[in-house]
Amino acid sequence: MEVIKRISSKLHYPNPVVTIGNFDGVHLGHQKVFLKVAEKAAEINGTPIAVTFAPHPVRVLAPERGLKMITTLEEKRELIARMGIEVLICITFDKAFSHMTPDDFIRDVLVEKIGAHWAIVGHSYSFGKGKKGTTAMLRIRGKKYGFKVSVVRYAQLHGEKVSSSRVRSALSRGRVCEAACMLGRAYHIEGTVVKGAGRGGPLLHTPTANLSTSHELIPREGVYAVRVSMKGRPLPSGNGSETKRIWPPFSLHPSPGTEVFDGVANIGRNPTFPDGVMNYEVHIFGFNRNIVGERLRLHFIDRIRDEKKFSGIPELQEHIRRDIATAGTILDRKKNVPLFL
């Protein structure tokens, strides 16, 4: 995929088929639009193009809301590329750009800079200053400037519209299964393995990998059944026989060299211990290699329970054993949850 961060002059792509949006999360509604763009571009020998914005407009216009992103910009780029989009135009959204009227956006960006042949947007799409631009306006201006417009109906889950805000809400409540249904894949966070407090192996007899992550949207504190993916060289277990490798049949195009393992993760402050530090840690089943410094993705398959303060080490150990057993049962049952690998 070609990424364009600044349009200084008119682009020259054959028959551009364009969609516009923030696309945070690249959920099922977004995917419907991208697939339609790719299909139409193939039909007319055109170029499938997506226009997005960074930072998210809400962060510029209403920073007090503290909006957390579902995906990083790099993840969004990769996910959009997997939907068949060949060009991603990432426009810097600032106060000056926010004053651009819908008419100016259509004329200056869609027509004069991109040369849109076809515009495809979601059912409730709005744009321009004050979000006054509508799909009806887009159709009218399309007739004026000579480009066609298609509107894609939004995706639904349980009779309600799939949206980025709904995904954020589900994750904030720990409802990772609901989020996965809207995303079309398990929600994940990615980070680097760092040295932790050292309690997992010596004290609790359950070694864990502690993750340092820049992901903003973390599921609600608690214990989760997860899958853990690692890219790069193969990572063997301690004796080479006990590690359980899983390759979900519906994973999203895993790249060569990626391995996936079962595990159980804890997000929280470990209330049984007094330090109160926020931790993201995972116990990978049958895996005991030192992977400090490696990059991991935790894919959240299901929630097991809330975080809890225990009376002491024995009670905590017993609950850890139960959590591992419960996670194993869940992961055996949910082998077909797609993963972003």
TrEMBL record:
Write down the InterPro entries for this protein, in alphabetical order.
Answer: Cyt_trans-like, FAD_synthase, Riboflavin_kinase, Riboflavin_kinase_bac, Riboflavin_kinase_bac/euk, Riboflavin_kinase_dom_sf, Rossmann-like_a/b/a_fold
The GO biological-process annotations, alphabetized, read as: FAD biosynthetic process; FMN biosynthetic process; riboflavin biosynthetic process
Which NCBIfam families does the UniProt record give?
cyt_tran_rel
Name under which the protein is recorded:
Riboflavin biosynthesis protein
Give the E.C. number(s): 2.7.1.26, 2.7.7.2
Transmembrane stretches in the record are none
Lineage at the top is: Bacteria, Pseudomonadati, Nitrospirota, Nitrospiria, Nitrospirales
| MF annotations from Gene Ontology | ATP binding; FMN adenylyltransferase activity; riboflavin kinase activity
Q: What does this protein do?
A: Catalyzes the phosphorylation of riboflavin to FMN followed by the adenylation of FMN to FAD.
Q: Name one Pfam family in it.
A: FAD_syn
Concerning its family, UniProt says: Belongs to the ribF family.
Asked if the keyword Transferase belongs to this entry, the reply reads: yes
Q: Where would I find the Riboflavin kinase domain in this sequence?
A: 182-332
Q: In which pathway does it act?
A: Cofactor biosynthesis; FAD biosynthesis; FAD from FMN: step 1/1; Cofactor biosynthesis; FMN biosynthesis; FMN from riboflavin (ATP route): step 1/1
- The organism of origin for this protein: Candidatus Nitrobium versatile
As given in the record, the signal peptide range reads: none
Q: Does the keyword Ligase apply?
A: no
Q: Which reaction does it catalyse?
A: FMN + ATP + H(+) = FAD + diphosphate; riboflavin + ATP = FMN + ADP + H(+)
Give the keywords, sorted.
ATP-binding, FAD, Flavoprotein, FMN, Kinase, Multifunctional enzyme, Nucleotide-binding, Nucleotidyltransferase, Transferase
